[in-house]
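Retro notes
What went well: the complex prediction finally ran end to end.
Inputs used:
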Amino acid sequence: MTLQMTKTQKLLRIMGNNMVPILFLVICAFGIPLSGYSANFLASEIVIRISRNSFLIVSLLIPILAGMGLNFGMTLGAMAGQIGLILISDWGIVGIPGIILAMIISTPISVLLGWWCGKILNMARGREMVTSYIIGFFMNGIYQLVVLYGMGAVIPVRSNALLLPRGYGIRNTVNLIGIRRALDDLLLIRLFGIPIPLATLLVITVLCLFILWFKKTKLGQDMRAVGQDMEVARAAGIKVEHTRIISIVISTVFAGYGMILYLQNIGTLNTYNSHMQIGMFSVAALLVGGASVSKANIRNVFLGVILFHLMFIISPMAGKNLIGQAQLGEYFRVFVSYGVITISLVLYEVRKKRDQHYVGLQLAADQEALQ
Amino acid sequence: MNLQQLTSSAKGLVKSFGLPRIIIGLFLLSLFITAPFVGVNIGTSLSDTFNRFGMNAVMVLAMVPMIHSGCGLNFGLPLGIIAGLLGATISLQVNIPGPTSFLLAILFATPFAVILGWGYGQLLNRVKGGEMMIATYVGFSSVAFMCIMWLLLPFSNPTMVWGYSGTGLRTTISTEGYYRHVLNDFLSIQLTDHLTIPTGMLLFFALLACIIWAFLHTKTGTAMTAVGSNSVFARASGINVDKIRTLSVIMSTWLGAIGILVYQQSFGFIQLYMGPFYMALPAVSAILIGGASVNKASILNVVIGTFLFQGIVTMTPSVMNSMIHTDMSEVIRIVVSNGMILYALTRKAEVTR
């Protein structure tokens, strides 16, 4: 005797599994006409957002593969990237070489931070997400210590445009004029009046191909095994702890690169705020794309960027046109970002329980059949 | 006693008390010792510490029921705070000045706390094992949701709404003329020019702490502890686990609501919109500094933890400022509080569930 699901149950399950993207489609479908934006404007905005954010979001994929959930510790990588950017701004290295150098500087910092983060997450097994989230906050303190007190005092930074008037510490906002849109403008083409930064998109494509390739390597397969069942993986001779640390290191390094790409598009660095927001937005975007805590792929990234940022672009105007307050739309989009993460986390836990329940029922049925 | 015994007993003491707690305790002690030498008035510092202790202790107390029932650290404290804010704003809307408004605020906050807490509890029952992350985001999304509500709800008391439009609540509302300092000034003792003890506020906390302590020793309270330490065993002995957990969440939410009211009466302002956003973290780390763990907490932990945490928060800016003429207190606060939470989350012995 096996357990069969009826057609309606199956349909409901598919609906349930894709509830968040469907919800977002509905919000956007209502919001776009309300906001009154033209299709051309929206399309060009979306292209900008894709080139700006997808690298960061892709960096979340590998820890999910390794079963460590959403890596809120990606802020660590973002901090490393920002340190790289501050240093190259001080040295006055501009354009593509500046971006590459910033990436090179960020790499060892990211590796170190990621390794440390992975170590700690290994100690907090079963609650990786909340721990990685607190790690982000903790490192923010250390980051402030380094950037606000160390730079200019211990770490040589000379540029007066960067330093606070007191002689040490970095200013609240750093103008990244030297590398602003350096990569985006390298190969900018216009399609139907929509500017498309081909070079950035190319970099993102390469990253996606890397992820696809990586999943097929030995290490990638090991990570999948660890993600599915740690004990089985251990029995199969995989170094579980080591594999988990590597997954976080890769994620952190990519987050650092992603942050550099993100900031070269924006053009200004909010020294003490930029990195704190990025984790939340990236996670929310990935979840909007239909990913869950245990399963995510590249399709989710792009669907997520498009839907999430569409909502982000239209909601202030929609709020203004609907109720007469743009502020309302602002709050609405913050609420939706957090709400989406909440719903996804809840659905994941509920589904995990339900699957365990199904497995139990199946087992009971099999036992009965044997007797 | 020979040296070996001494070191081993010292090690035992360190182990039972926890190294981070000792470091933090010694740090605070050294702050108090250095304070007079760098020209910081001890009386003012102590008075500030007591004041902040009273302001925050109830919110730290709000952690206790949920930790007891095994729901983990209540990162969803903002939900309770929102119930408190609703109580406060409705009380001001009713517009009865004086201490009565404080009682009214508690009265109005209670039903919201119960309803929100009940829903929150139902949610947490469905996600056993992943409570803390979900709690965090329940807190965040409820704060964001209330941001919309503060703009839309039909409040009309001119002290609360924006002056030019007449609608939408202000980001900060003064409690002056309503319940500002009602507890602080009740029976307050002025020891010296600089040292005032806010007796009423401390008494209010003591009262709530006693109620919680007594509750934890009733039959239901014992059941709560049983659910927290071993839910399978608790179910086997006939305890309705989900019901007890929901009750603990309601209690935590209600205490959070009362906590923010106590905070407001001393602070003098009601902070709306993004105000409650990060309020859970200091409370969580305070109880952990006091010696609680993810699934064990006592009233003593609350008292010690709040005192140590608030002591550091009060003392570091003044002492640091006079010592090295830079305000590094913010960094120290971030590192200490989040470091403490990390420490608690990574304890091996507690990963039992």
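What we learned: The CA atoms of residues 193 and 331 of chain A lie 32 Å apart.
What to try next: split runs per interface for comparison.
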